[in-house]
Amino acid sequence: MNKLIEWYRINKRDLPWRDTRDPYKVWLSEIILQQTRVAQGLPYYLKFVEQYPSVTDLAQASEQEVLKLWQGLGYYSRARNLHYTARDIVENYEGRFPATYRELLKLKGVGEYTAAAIASFCYDEPVAVIDGNVFRVLARLHGIDTPVNTTEGKKIFKHQAAESLDKRQPGVYNQAIMEFGALQCVPGQPDCEICPLQAQCTAYKTGKVRELPVKLPKVKIKKRFLHYIIVRHGNRILWQKRTDKDIWKNLYQPVLIEGENAEDIPGDKLRELYAEYKVQPEGEPQLLYKTIHQLTHRRLEIVFWEVYSKHPLHGAIATDELKKYPVPVVIAKFLDNYNL
User: Fold this and answer.
1) Residue 311: CB partners within 8 Å, gap ≥ 6?
2) Does residue 141 contact residue 200 with C-beta atoms inside 8 Å?
3) I want to staple 139 with a disulfide (CB 3.0 to 4.6 A). Which of 89, 122, 213, 255 is the partner?
4) pLDDT, tens only, 227-250
5) Are the C-beta atoms of residues 69 and 51 closer than 8 Å to each other?
6) Can you give the residue ranges of every domain in the chain?
7) Half-sphere exposure of 206 (CA within 13 A, CB side)
């Protein structure tokens, strides 16, 4: 695979986590880049490194501070795991990252891919990384048509990745094959005429570049209907923390009612909400704003309503305090557009 590494040395992007063997920075970059494009993740990486230059600094932060800095990246369980693991490393590993693939796997939020990345990039352990870019390169290069998102497919690709790994320089090789998939062997129709691996590529020889890799259809998208009720008295509104095992755990929001459609608030649930917070409303909730928010397996139809309370609200917060709290991006956009 000398051609692959040669290509990488010439074409690799200048990214800050490539200039270090610090496992903290490599770990941070890999967690941020899960489910996130490099262009979107880079500013977050730079903000985290600036605010928390070491794992000890991150461990000393509060979860709320970490979630606020993460706001907008989505998949917030990554941020919660990031914070938990930083504290785990400081408390149980004397502030030093484990130096082997198997030990790294014991850390919360660190799966096979991230463990392999840290182990090979920082410690030169010969273990292969496998992500979407690697799947694509290996599928085309070796003509593998087993679906990548099946148990059998994962086993085949894991074996092929290990066989292809340059064990003398595993960190460089792993970064090279991922970068090759991101920049050269891209989805759809890549420019195969300038590809340095063209002569070895089974997909190119057999005309199957567009067909590989094979992936089974995704699960059906489910709809959810979220009614956020801005219950206010003067400049104070009800504000709550999400604590259930659901999307956006530990982020903040107005009080919420989940319904069967995006048109009407379920009357029984609205009465329960008023009773719980001892609200005496002035009239019916007024529609403020509707939006749709797409997650991986869910389509959220979201409606914001406003209702005034005749009396002060227990536990309400001042509206000028709202932006101090970490919130889902859909609520951040609402707060930006509406002067509460």
Assistant:
1) 233, 278, 280
2) yes
3) 213
4) 999 999 999 999 999 998 899 999
5) yes
6) 7-125, 128-217, 222-337
7) 15
From residue 313, give the alpha-carbon distance in Å to each of 255, 284, 288.
12, 17, 21
Q: By the 8 A CB rule, do 301 and 262 touch?
A: yes
CATH homologous superfamily of domain 222-337?
Answer: Nucleoside Triphosphate Pyrophosphohydrolase (3.90.79.10)
Give the mean model confidence (pLDDT) for residues 296-325. Answer: 93
What is the tens place of the pLDDT at every residue in 63-79? 999 999 999 998 899 99
Q: pLDDT tens across 9-51, in order?
A: 999 999 999 989 999 999 999 999 988 899 999 999 999 999 9
Please give the biggest Cα pair distance in the chain: 76
**Which residues does the annotation mark as catalytic?**
30
Q: In angstroms, rounded to a whole number, what is the distance separating the alpha carbons of residues 26 and 167?
A: 20
Q: What does 309-340 look like in DSSP terms, one character per residue?
A: BSS--TT-EEGGGGGGS---HHHHHHHHHS--
How does residue 219 score in pLDDT terms, banded at 50, 70 and 90? confident
Place of tokens 């917030």: 76
- The rounded percent of the chain whose pLDDT value lies above 70 is 100
